[in-house]
Amino acid sequence: MIIRMSKVEIVGPKGRLLEVLTRLGEKGILQLDDELFPLPGKEPPVKALLPDKKTLAERTFFLVLQEEIKELLGLLPAPPVRDGYLAPLPVIDVVAALVKKHLPLCREWNRTREVLGRELQELSGYDTLLQTFEPLLQKAGGDTSLEFIGVTIKDPALVERFRRLAAEETAGRFELETARTADGALVGLIATEKKMAQRLRRALSDGQIPELTLPKPYSDLPLAERGAALRARQQEVEEELARLSEEEERFARRWLPIYRRVLHWLTERLALLEASAAVFETGMCFYIQGWTPAAEVAPLRDDLEGRFRGEVLLSELVIREEDLDRVPVALQNPPYFKPFELLSRLLPLPRYTSFDPTTFLGLFFPLFFGMILGDIGYGLVLAVLVAVLLRAWPTGQNITDAAKILGVCAAYSLIFGVLFGEFFGDFGARRLGLQPILFERSQALLPLLYFSLSVGFAHILLGQILGVLAALNRHLRREALLKVLGILFLLLLVALVSARFVPHPWLGDTHLILALLGISLLALFAGGLLAPLELLKSVGNIISYTRIMAIGLTSVLLAQIANRLGGMTGDVFAGILVAGLLHFFNLVLGVFAPTVHALRLHYVEFFSKFLEPGGRRFEPLDRSHP
Amino acid sequence: MEQALLALAAALAIGLPALATGWAQSRIGAAGAGTLAEKPELSATIIILVAIPETMVILGFVVATMILVLE
């Protein structure tokens, strides 16, 4: 349900503003509203509180410091450290100076780490290549009159083209060996005479075939020493990186608790300074206006008066008609309804004068689900599934909520299963002698249709009544009148339909039709051309509830088919397997379809009658969120 | 002959809305898939939107049932 809100005003001496805002932030139950002014009878000198030069400078200083600390924390590792309990305000200047000293140091560490990391990556790449080339070089037999050229071959199909090119440039005096590196790339090594090598290199460059070259210090070394030199440098870099990590971690362990504490304090402080933008002032006092849950007004008043020794006063104000659109909305539901907020969250927040859809979803969603699925066997399977889900995810918010909703739905499926006499379709009736209390769905199509339409009528009628109340809450009399006409229209229509079955002694069809026409005319005058169409729309909404019958019937027929196919196998195990598979398939559909359609009946048919979207979420002043 | 016509009428009553529902769901489904690529949090809303045209085939089913049952 939507929590009742109160509009409150807090007044106190200007010097205590920050303390008051701090306290309000701690309590977290007041939403400031800077658009409620000007108050009637409180003409200027009440004006918006403008920050003075000192406050502005303080805010800028805090913002810069906050950004610097955030950057510093981003550069440092995050080992587990103790909590900091430093009171930052007295030492804030020292902290600012420290950050100025530490930030360049951490930036330098970070830069070194990046450079070393890049070098290590390059070295390991070269090492992979050298490891690939080593067997090829050994094959060449260490001939010093030869020159070796390494290339990367992007496409294996190009090897032949590459071979032809090398043959042309060296007059066939070359040897080409290819191999795959550890990461899967194809590389080739050409051995040719030194005098041919230059021409071949030029040709490779013209053909845009990249040659593999080692960086300078290694390319000058003899081939046999290159691998060892590379690996030695790799080890050196790794050691440097490890030293750096150690140093950073030591630094982080020492300074992280302090910086984290200061950052937290800064966030709170900036949140308060931000909130002061919604404050008003006179020469000596500050004014705060806002919204708080009605139940919290008295405790908050006592708290402020006690804490500030009567210097700060809280008074409750009357909510004016023009304030209604500004009242923030907070939902609070008892434990049974709470999980259904998962479904109502899909809708936009209702206005304060409207209703919380959660309550209605909690009441009717499982009911419709049960009416559609309506099977003892399926209900039991769902109950077991719910137990498993709740055991596996005892605290995961969304999954737990979904499991709880499914639990209620399973209970309703059991109840309607008993009423319809269904246990895995007609298995209960054929094998266990189960008899329906209401009717057998697969045989009683018309009663099922009337039942669904009756449910739809009751649901839509409730929606219309709630629509009248919502319109009256907002003082929209014309809209309320139209809703009342809608109710009368539906009642007369039902009377007209029921007269087909039970003729009334004095209320004839003619009277009813004339009354319906009269209501349509009234609606036309009261609401314009579209109003009579709106009346007819309600009829369409009620007819839409026939899906309860249609989908329910599909479910029960599928269950019967599963039983028959299982029986046709002529073997107990095969029969159980076939029937089990089909029942499983039906159960999956039987959970999905009722969920979607029960939701649709609510969202499209029912809520359109009364729910007014566009509410402002209640976001109380919270000192940790600027 | 009358039986055959009734059966044909029932078949048309459910068949045509089924085609219409399929076509509408294909359009909504395609748009919904595009929406989900950008805003996965709207998945529940998209499921509802895809289910909306099913009204047609459900009403077709009801009419077909009535044709056959109330003959």
From TrEMBL, chain B:
The keyword Translocase does not apply. InterPro entries: ATPase_proteolipid_c-like_dom, F/V-ATP_Csub_sf. It holds the Pfam family ATP-synt_C. The chain crosses the membrane at residues 44-70. The keyword Cytoplasm does not apply. CDD domains: ATP-synt_Vo_Ao_c_TtATPase_like (cd18181). Keywords: Membrane, Transmembrane, Transmembrane helix. Residues 8-67 form the V-ATPase proteolipid subunit C-like domain. One of its GO terms (molecular function) is proton transmembrane transporter activity. GO terms for cellular component: proton-transporting two-sector ATPase complex, proton-transporting domain. It is found in: Membrane. It is a multi-pass membrane protein. It comes from the Bacteria. This is V-type ATP synthase subunit C. It comes from Desulfuromonas soudanensis. The lineage of its organism: Bacteria, Pseudomonadati, Thermodesulfobacteriota, Desulfuromonadia, Desulfuromonadales.
